[in-house]
Amino acid sequence: MTSQIDTLLDETRRFPPPEQFAAQANATEATYQAAAKDREAFWATEAAQLDWIEPWHTVLEWNLPHAKWFVGGKLNVSSNCLDRHVSGGRADKAAIIWEGEPGDTRTLSYAELSQEVNRCANALRGLGVGKGDRVAIYLPMIPEAAIAMLACARIGAVHSVVFGGFSAESLRDRINDAEAVAVITADGGNRRGQVVPLKKFADKALEDTPSVRHVLVVSRIGEAADTVMQPGRDHWWHEIVDAASTEATPEPMDAEDLLFILYTSGTTGKPKGIVHTTGGYLTQVTTTSKYVFDLKDDDVFWCSADIGWVTGHSYVVYGPLANGATVVMYEGSPDWPDRDRFWALCAKHGVTVFYTAPTAIRTFMKWGPEFPDRHDLSQLRLLGTVGEPINPEAWMWYHQHIGHGRCPIVDTWWQTETGGIMITPLPGVTTTKPGSATVPFPGISAELVDTDGTPIESGGGYLTITDPWPGMLRTIYRDDDRYRETYWSRFPGRYFAGDGAKLDDDGYWWILGRVDDVLNVSGHRIGTMEVESALVDHPAVAEAAVVGKTHDIKGQAVAAFVTLKGDRDGSEDLVKELKQHVTEKIGAIARPEDIIFTADLPKTRSGKIMRRLLRDIAEGRALGDTTTLADPNVVNMLIEKHEAAEG
Ligand code: PRX
Known about the structure:
Helix 3 crosses helix 4 (39-47) and helix 11 (279-292) crosses helix 12. The protein is built from 21 helices and 29 strands.
């Protein structure tokens, strides 16, 4: 069997940037040279294009592992995304073109978006929410999601967006970790013709969140959602936001004040609150949006990510809006009511730049080209991908059937922690190779190292970043020790991204995937420990070990090995129950694909679960060294069970 990695390492195919792009490109070779010569000057020149209330006095203060960018500067992110466009000639230009799953649409011009944001900012201030307060946002993909984020930014409140697919418990834990004072949610959202009752989930979470004083509720569904409002705590958006003034003074924020916290999975059971600040983050997402997506005034940019993920923060909201672009937001999924929904939307709204995840591309590929072929996609001029390694086959399909050979593809590597794009081609500048994220963005220094941390020029190793960059995470919320330990201890002096990678002879990066206990399921991060904790929380489960297995569409899927308490037997019903239990504890994205019951887990003599063996079993691969096993029989039994489970 050819492994995905073997195919990935096809370095021979090259796609030079199309001619017409070279003339339009925002960036040129000279951009790389300038940035290489003086990294700080490059970022400072970019930052200077934002509106600052007070200028910074120092570009960078680097006290490893703590960076401060644009020290002393003051600015407001919402003013940069809205006010300067309203006063600068874009007042009537569409900022957000939104479409709901049932087909309802709403277009907000920059002037309208700005007014809505100010109303929401005033409503929040009226509820006593102010600078530095944390606000949890638990919304579907509706314009209010972007409005709420920008309103927090306007008043200096720190938002923590929680993906609408997360369970009540996940929401509760995130609210409590950040001690959020307010929650912004909706009565529900639409997903494949069903209502997702977000307010009901939020109510369950709110039973145990002592810090929350107010809940702001958008009516997306209406009476059918049967929403119960708690007097004094819950307020309808259409009552208090719509009644508020459209003028709201922006809070002058220090460049290093917190803009948001976003929770992401790590190698322990507890998600990490990734902290992003104001000036550096905005600089990086604005700059990368401009250069990587080559945004021009007439572009319509659709990044299909949900705002619950960092991609939605950086490339649905902050990056493109800071550039005055028009963004598309869509509430539903690609296969509802038909498998051509995304392409119908691209044609209808004249999308010119489209950015999505390899999982989606592999799904489209499976469905076949007849769905995009139904629509006129001639306005598309640039395609992007993010979140997982893209296999060359999917890259070629995307290039041929969506881009019709005309659109360059930018394969962008970055993370929740990096805030913005780090390794990527630039359209018009970089020759691309299918499956490679190509080269670091100007002003970013990446280095490949071996297990000892020694830099290597080519071959396989670990991806590290050697110098601070403006959009980098500043710490883990209220857990700076974990910040140091997770990112800066494996290779002292370097940021370790958790990814394995390969450098080819042209110096191109090929990201191979996570080398830690973090899975990447459909481009979403899931910690094996989180799923294990959810499983052992079930009364029947004694012990659980979770590993990733290769999946054609999702990239990876969750496989769980479970031992039961007492002499309970594993039944089909219990498999279903455990899958449901994980969905309730974390959310549907963490639901295991396979659950294999076993009397014992393979352990070393010191009691460590041998995940490598479990991965081999889950993949159906020949087993590696088993000599350190405490009880070698466990493995044979597991292999039999796994084969039986696979049918
Ligand atoms: O393993 C890498 C993978 O996604 C991880 C980051 O996940 P998250 O913080 O959820 O952010 C996803 C969207 C920015 C990385 O450690 N990853 C991201 N982009 C790529 C990628 N793997 C390969 N190629 C990419 N372009």
